[in-house]
């Protein structure tokens, strides 16, 4: 019995010891759990737990902040909700390895989807958690690598953009070592110098590109002293030996300790620009020489009438260089803008020519106003001025002389016509009353007197018509040309029938703006000319019309005797007749009248000999004649 009590007390003591040990273990476990929880919650890394099916069991504050969930919300999520279907399948595929090894063999990178839809990059290391000796859950420790990942992506994107810019740049881009070996070159550089990439990247020495190798040393010295050069001029040589003018924009490439390792930059071919610049300088020199050699006055002014340039002759005329002053004051001594000023038109881009009487010295000036367009988009006005006072005086004298000549011509024609008509009447009456009393010679003399006096009367009429063709104002109206041709055909019908000459005209002719009397006289004179000089071979006259871009074109074509080349050049002159016109009545004014009337209608008249005889007379009339 005593023995049993001792054994019982021993067991009780042992039990108390076990109980005490259990409590210590329990306290230690709570302490470890508290430490783990503190580490779990305060860790800068994201720590989470999920069961073997992927349902989240816990997550620390860092994980909750990263994903944007509360602790309660994360417990309703699983791997698929944050990884997506594809990444979740990959994660589950690693479960057998984790169950076997107790942890993953490598850190894995995942893209997580946060609550707000944003994505974050993490590196994850996972391990197996046991409970009661059996796999219970998986714990993951994730490091947020979003910033470094985005930085890496941005860097790769930047490198991609740089490479794209490098490859597609129209300028030649290069990278060389300090010694001169080409490290990289873009396609534009290869095209510029004619080398392949293999040639350039196989130890090519850039000194071969310099026309003078010393320029390479000078370049190195300057770029290394400043670290950067812009538009450094240098002469380089292509593979084929062609020399080109270039501008280098370069910077140094340095190591971390600041030592120069090489150079990178852009080479721009400015050969054509240099040629253009020299050509511009030459043109400016030529312009300057022309300005100085010009006998007239030249000035350039701004839109607000300020003088920007005066040539030497204008300076001499004004007595001083008035650059910067108002043009109307300096040149014409006016206190306001010139009444004839055309600034508004010129600064719209028009060139305007006019004649003005300067109030400063009563000299007549011919002024050509032209716009000057500057590279910066602004404009100026250039004026070329010629003193035409002497010409205006001569024109006035000529007009007065022309008026006197016209008056004389009218007087002479009147004084000639009256006696000519009288002589014709007397000769006619003498022939009629005394023809039987006269012998053959007398009758012939009477006929000659009548014919000569009739010719004088016709000549007087033609002179008056020629003067009228130059002086009488045009009465412009819309004309039906077919009616004019009908009247002309009727008037010449007896000749056409007797000589058996065919008449041909267009079925349709559009309306024409012209002076009716002038157009009728033009066509009548041309038909009359064909009948007079066509000779015995003439049997066809064709009136034609062509619609040209700016003119109405009429022509009279015949298959008669034709015209010689030398006559075609001068037949439209006053009193000019063909060499073969002997025996044909005419005044030599008919075609001159045609030419004069055509010119007054903004056109011209000419003749073309036919290939196989005959001739074609052309008359053009402007389409821009205004009705009035």
Q: Could you explain the architecture of this structure?
A:
With 628 residues, the protein is an alpha+beta fold. It has five domains: 24-145, Beta-Lactamase (2-Layer Sandwich); 169-275, PAS domain (Beta-Lactamase, 2-Layer Sandwich), CATH 3.30.450.20; 294-387, PAS domain (Beta-Lactamase); 392-467; 473-622, 2-Layer Sandwich (Heat Shock Protein 90), CATH 3.30.565.10. Helix content is 46%, strand content 25%. The chain has 20 helices and 22 strands. The strands form five sheets. It has a five-stranded antiparallel sheet with strand order 2-1-5-4-3. A five-stranded antiparallel sheet has the order 7-6-10-9-8, with helices on both faces. Strands 12-11-15-14-13 form a five-stranded antiparallel sheet. Helix 14 (389-434) packs antiparallel against helix 15, helix 15 runs parallel beside helix 20 and helix 18 runs antiparallel to helix 20. It is elongated and about 210 Å long. The model has no long low-confidence stretch (mean pLDDT 82).
Key features of this structure:
alpha+beta; Beta-Lactamase; single chain; 628 residues; 20 helices; elongated; 22 strands; 5 domains; 5-stranded antiparallel sheet
């Amino acid at each position: 019995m005593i023995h049993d009590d001792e054994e019982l007390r021993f067991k009780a003591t042992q039990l108390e010891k076990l109980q005490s040990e259990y409590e210590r273990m329990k306290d230690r476990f709570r302490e470890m759990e508290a430490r783990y929880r503190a580490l779990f919650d305060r860790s800068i890394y994201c720590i989470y737990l999920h069961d073997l099916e992927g349902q989240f069991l816990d997550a620390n504050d860092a994980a909750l902040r990263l994903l944007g969930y509360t602790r309660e919300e994360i417990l309703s999520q699983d791997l698929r909700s944050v990884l997506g279907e594809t990444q979740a399948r990959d994660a589950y595929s690693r479960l057998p390895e984790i169950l076997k090894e107790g942890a993953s063999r490598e850190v894995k990178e995942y893209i997580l989807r946060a609550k707000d839809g944003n994505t974050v990059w993490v590196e994850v290391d996972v391990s197996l958690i046991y409970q009661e000796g059996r796999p219970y859950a998986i714990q993951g420790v994730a490091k947020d690598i979003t910033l470094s990942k985005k930085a890496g992506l941005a860097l790769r994107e930047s490198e991609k953009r740089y490479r794209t810019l490098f490859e597609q740049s129209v300028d030649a881009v290069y990278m060389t070592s300090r010694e001169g070996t080409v490290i990289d070159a873009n396609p534009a550089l290869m095209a510029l110098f004619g080398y392949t990439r293999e040639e350039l990247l196989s130890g090519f020495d850039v000194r071969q590109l310099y026309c003078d190798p010393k320029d390479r040393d000078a370049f190195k010295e300057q770029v290394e002293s400043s670290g950067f050069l812009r538009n450094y001029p240098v002469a380089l040589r292509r593979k084929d030996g062609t020399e080109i003018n270039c501008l280098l924009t370069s910077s140094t490439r340095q190591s971390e300790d600041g030592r120069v390792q090489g150079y990178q930059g852009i080479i721009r071919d400015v050969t054509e620009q240099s040629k253009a610049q020299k050509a511009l300088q030459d043109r400016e020199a030529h312009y300057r020489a022309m300005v100085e050699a010009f006998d007239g006055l030249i000035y350039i002014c701004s839109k607000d009438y300020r003088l920007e340039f005066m040539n030497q002759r204008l300076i001499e005329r004004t007595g001083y260089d008035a650059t910067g002053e108002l043009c109307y004051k300096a040149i014409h001594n006016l206190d306001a803008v010139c009444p004839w000023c055309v600034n508004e038109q010129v600064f719209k881009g028009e060139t305007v020519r006019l004649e003005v009487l300067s109030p400063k010295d009563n000299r007549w000036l011919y002024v050509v106003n032209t716009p000057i367009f500057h590279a910066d988009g602004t404009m100026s006005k250039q004026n070329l001025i010629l003193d035409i006072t002497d010409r205006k005086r001569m024109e006035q004298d000529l007009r007065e002389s022309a008026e006197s000549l016209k008056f004389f011509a009218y007087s002479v024609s009147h004084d000639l016509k009256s006696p000519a008509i009288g002589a014709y009447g007397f000769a006619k009456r003498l022939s009629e009353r005394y023809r039987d009393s006269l012998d053959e010679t007398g009758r012939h003399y009477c006929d000659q007197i009548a014919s000569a006096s009739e010719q004088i009367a016709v000549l007087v009429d033609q002179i008056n018509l020629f003067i009228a063709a130059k002086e009488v104002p045009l009465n412009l109206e819309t004309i039906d040309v077919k009616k004019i041709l009908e009247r002309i055909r009727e008037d010449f019908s007896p000749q056409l029938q007797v000589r058996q000459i065919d008449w041909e005209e267009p079925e349709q002719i559009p309306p024409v703006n012209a002076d009716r009397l002038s157009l009728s006289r033009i066509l009548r004179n041309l038909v009359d000319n064909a009948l007079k000089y066509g000779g015995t071979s003439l049997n066809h006259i064709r009136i034609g019309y062509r619609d040209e871009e700016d003119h109405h074109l009429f022509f009279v074509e015949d298959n008669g005797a034709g015209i010689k080349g030398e006559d075609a050049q001068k037949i439209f002159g006053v009193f000019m007749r063909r060499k073969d016109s002997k025996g044909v009545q005419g005044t030599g004014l008919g075609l001159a009248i045609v030419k004069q009337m055509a010119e007054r209608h903004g056109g011209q008249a000419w003749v073309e000999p036919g290939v196989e005889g005959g001739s074609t007379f052309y008359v053009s009339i402007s389409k821009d004649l205004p009705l009035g």
